[in-house]
Design goal:
Blueprint (H helix, E strand, L loop, with lengths): L5 H16 L20 H12 L20 E2 L4 H11 L6 E3 L16 E3 L4 H14 L4 E7 L2 H16 L3 E8 L7 H16 L4 E5 L6 H13 L7 E4 L16 H4 L3 E5 L7 H6 L11 H9 L36 H31 L15 H5 L2 E3 L5 E3 L10 E8 L5 E9 L9 E3 L27 E5 L8 E5 L4 E2 L9 E2 L4 E3 L6 E3 L1 E3 L6 H26 L4 H4 L3 H17 L9 H35 L12 H25 L3 E5 L6 E7 L3 H24 L10 H24 L3 H32 L6 H4 L4
Parallel strand pairs: 1-2, 2-3, 4-5, 4-6, 6-7, 7-8, 20-22
Antiparallel strand pairs: 8-11, 9-10, 11-12, 12-13, 14-15, 16-17, 18-19, 21-22
Helix pairs in contact: 1-11, 2-3, 6-7, 13-15, 13-20, 15-16, 15-20, 16-17, 16-18, 17-18, 18-19, 19-20
Amino acid sequence: MIPKNYQHVLAFLFAIHEINKNAELLPNTTLGPMIYDNAFNSRRSSWATLKFLFPGQGSHINYKCVREKNLMAVIGGLTSQNSIQMGNILNTYKKPQLSYGSFDPVLKDKIQFPSLYGLVPNQDLQYVGLVRLLKHLGWIWIGLMVSEDDSGETFLRKLRPRLLHNNICIAWTQVIPLLTAFSQNDQEKLGLIQSTLSMSEINVILVYGDRQSLEGLQIVLYSEEIVFMYPVEKVWITTAEWDFTAIESIKKFTTKSFNGTLSFRLHTNVVPGFQDFVDTINPFQSTFYFIHQFWLSAFLCSFPMFNLYVPNKENCTGEENLWNLPGSVFEMRMSGQSYRIYNAVYAVAYALHAMDLSRTKKNARRDGGTWKLWNVQPWQLHWFLRNIRFNNSAGEEIFFDDNGDLAGGYDLINLVTFPNESFQRRRVGKVDPQAPAGKEFIINGSTIVWNHKFNQIPPSSTCVESCYPGQSMAIQQGKPVCCYDCIECPQGRISTQVDANQCEMCPENQYPNKYKDQCILKVMSYLSFEEPLGVVLASLALFLSVITIVVIGSFIQHQNTPIVKANNWSITCALLSSLLLCFLCSFLFIGWPGKVTCLLRQTVFGIIFSVAVACVLAKTITVVLAFMATKPGNRMRKWVGKRLAVSVIIHSSLIQTGTCVVWLATCPPFPEFDMHSKIDAITVQCNEGSALMFYIVLGYMGFLAIISFTVAFFARKLPDTFNEAKLITFSMLVFCSVWVSFVPTYLSTKGKYMVAVEVFSILASSAGLLGCIFLPKCYIVIFRPELNTRDQLVRKK
């Protein structure tokens, strides 16, 4: 006998005792118990079932003696095979069967077992709880042990795809043989299990089976810890089918091996009065079934008067206290299976109560007659049993669902063991199918006590080291999905969790940080007045504008001097004004690129620069014509004057202006946000609208500069008296050099640096014109006034 399982009998008797004391539930009716032990034996289970149906010495099957006692329901059995054998017989006679310990899915088949009611929750809930537990604790590389029977095969077939779907891998699978006798084959299988457990580095092992099918595993663990003194210290995860703490009293409980075990158990609750009921048991006063065999097995003492002996042990006194027994022998708190038996007895009682009320009302309506509850047939109980709903003494609502199974869930228990073979069960979670969506599985990981091997730190159970945030998993060819490589996230992507399947793109307005585990908001990038580059360019533009104003002021102040008069005052004023505007238009390129700014910056720049270059061209032509007009009889004299210069400036400027108008009318520039050019910034820039029009404007400006440079180059050797061509040649050489180098530099830069290149080119080319053409004259006007005379101006070389 396994003493711990005797609690099933006590829970059964306690429920009947309470019901018989309740005068309102079944008045004038007494429930009587019949108990048989099937000892995990299917043949014995069949024999016991027939004894239920046809009691008495020498009774034959299908012969029933007239008696007052009537078998209304059968509760059992503990194992799946026993429940199946019982069901095959009880279904023939339509006797209600309430199975409290079987999880076999075949018993859910209402066609094959129409009279069976399951007292255990749907096993699918246990699959859900197992997967959620493994995922919650990050265990993706586990060992699996299953019983060598149909239930173990079914469990493996249903669980494996769920694990793979959640990227949880089974490192190895061991099948535990069903021990009927210690054959050579069984010993070899147990030896293989023993070597696997001792050599495997897997920290987490999931075990499925019942007490009978897992007896071989208990033998292995017992020999390792007790005999060889090497406990198998793993994190064991067990299912509700196996109460691993229930052992024979002659054996020791393997406390070190099972310390920290996580087990799913049938939900239980505190039933008022049960512990007091158990505490009053005395083998010399109670007439409970198997009470003396239980007492002998639990306390290892003898009952000579009943011919029950334990070698070398004293006689039982009846003063032994059940509270002093270790938990592996007997627990005072009602177990999950005992709680199911307790509820099953009450379910039958409430069904009888409902039938009694229904039949009494029916007879009263007809003729006022009465009827006897014990005259009904068991098959008449099914409808009432399927529809019962009541609250038990623990305050929980009890009812059968649409599948004929008792509604409920599982508790997740953490076992904490102590050196004296005692232990404590801690409920650290639960699986509740009636909970709100997303709350079906609850676990409090901080309260779990782990095996002392892991120093109270949650162990890891992975094939490889986890990938950190900023990395993603890459499956290794030919290996399970749990064995993978970690690769760094590519540019622009991040991963924020451990073991990410893939890296995710940051939003367009964000970019990855250095470790690629977080997205950072991008800054707005444009050439602003606050940054050093913007400050330098703006200061330079302002300085050159001031220099230009000083030059203009000097020329106005000395406009009557010979050197100023000789430079065509009107063209000089137009050129200096256009250069001043060139410097000032640089400010259109600095600052936030708004809609108006984008429309004006390129067109204003193109028109003003065209005017400036046209003025230089006009000045160059004027110089050439002035020299040619000095020759006697030359017809060019009539072209010398303002008329030609103004005509050149106006026509040249009008062509560029017309081009800009067409540009603005067809595809005008507009502001845009460039999200992709730079990783860490959003480039705020002006889209030119049409790159072709931009290069046409730039090309036309270059065309005017080349003509001016060519004319000035050929006029560079004219006599010094009239020769301004040398200065113009050098200024245009600087101008062309700047803009020729501008094109490749502009195309090779991006964002605000592209704008900075254009601003610098504007300032450099304008400064070249200003410096080369006007600074030498300003030097004479301001610092060498003695050279600014008519005699010096007309002096021959």
